[in-house]
Write a structure and sequence with these properties.
305 residues, six-stranded antiparallel β-sheet, two-stranded antiparallel sheet, Phosphorylase Kinase, domain 1, single chain
Length: 305
């Protein structure tokens, strides 16, 4: 049974609680450098959600930074569902752009998981700080993100919340994070179950109709993410917009597969000296689909839902 809201004088194995986290509900308030969960020293709070918090911690055992996701004080059993989904997805995928699951503390007094920390800003933070990305950079980022998505799909899961906030740039390569919304491919969502980020999810998810989870949902989100951070005034942007328009086609059946989308983006990913993959690898991708003209208005950044 879930515990009641804990205070700093409660269970000695749990962090203290406070009420000032911006929504009039308690959140964890450990002493900086003190234990947030066993073996993980609190360093910085990243985010506070309705049911969970995300922290940067220092792992004493690993002697490395980790990301800890844990339920908020006063938790109920249903609050651990996102942790369950992330564990299921991460346990079956091995890809350099997807964080590794480092600790599973879901059976503890305060359920938590710890995942690999990628040190880098999100695409949205980069665009806000330095402006939108030129065409070649966006195409290369897209190929690498789609490679991670392909691995996730091969393991049987969809991400379902890809956006500029959930793609980081670490060591000059994109990393795909936050799999708390992931679902197994082929499963049917519950009617009214809202997933994804407005503006970056496929139209089939917009009204939460209880549809079946497909790879095309993630393909659409990747396309919308790349469009959001693209500088549409750079050389080649027009062709890239045409290529990305296919990824966000309102008809999910007309969207390319991850392989085909990767092949399409390699066509405009710059010279081979600028691509972070060897040219001979591209022969293992399918032929790029024919370029289709983007709908009028897409160059202006029309949202997809």
């Amino acid at each position: 049974m879930a515990p009641d809201t804990l205070t700093a004088h409660g269970d000695p194995g749990t962090p203290g609680a406070m009420s000032d986290v911006g929504d009039d509900r308690p959140g964890w308030n450990p002493e900086m450098g003190g234990p947030l969960v066993p073996g993980m020293l609190a360093w910085d709070r990243f985010t506070v959600g309705r049911r969970r918090e995300t922290w940067l911690c220092w792992s004493v055992d690993l002697w490395a930074p980790v990301v800890v996701k844990l339920v908020r004080p006063g938790w109920r059993p249903s609050w651990t569902q996102a942790l369950d989904r992330e564990v299921r997805a991460l346990a079956h995928v091995a890809h350099p752009a997807v964080p590794r699951l480092l600790a599973d503390g879901r059976d503890g007094a305060v359920p938590y998981i710890a995942v690999e920390y990628f040190d880098g800003p999100s695409l949205s933070q980069c665009a806000d700080a330095e402006g939108a990305f030129p065409c070649g950079d966006v195409a290369r980022i897209g190929v690498l993100v789609l490679g991670a998505v392909r691995a996730l799909h091969a393991a049987g899961n969809a991400h379902l919340d890809i956006s500029p906030h959930n793609v980081l740039l670490a060591d000059r390569r994109p990393r795909l994070i936050d799999l708390g919304a992931s679902r197994p491919l082929g499963t049917r969502l519950e009617p009214g179950e809202r997933l994804g980020t407005v503006g970056f999810r496929g139209p089939e998810l917009a009204d939460a109709p209880g549809v079946q989870v497909t790879p095309a949902m993630d393909v659409c989100s990747v396309g919308a993410t790349l469009l959001q951070v693209l500088d549409r005034d750079t050389l080649g942007a027009g062709e890239l917009v045409d290529r990305l328009a296919a990824l966000i086609d309102p008809d999910s059946g007309r969207r390319p597969t991850t392989d085909a989308a990767m092949a399409a983006l390699t066509r405009i990913a710059g010279s081979r000296t600028t691509r972070p993959w060897p040219g001979f690898a591209e022969q293992h991708l399918p032929r790029a689909p024919r370029r289709r003209r983007a709908p009028v208005g897409l160059l202006a950044g029309v949202p997809i839902d």
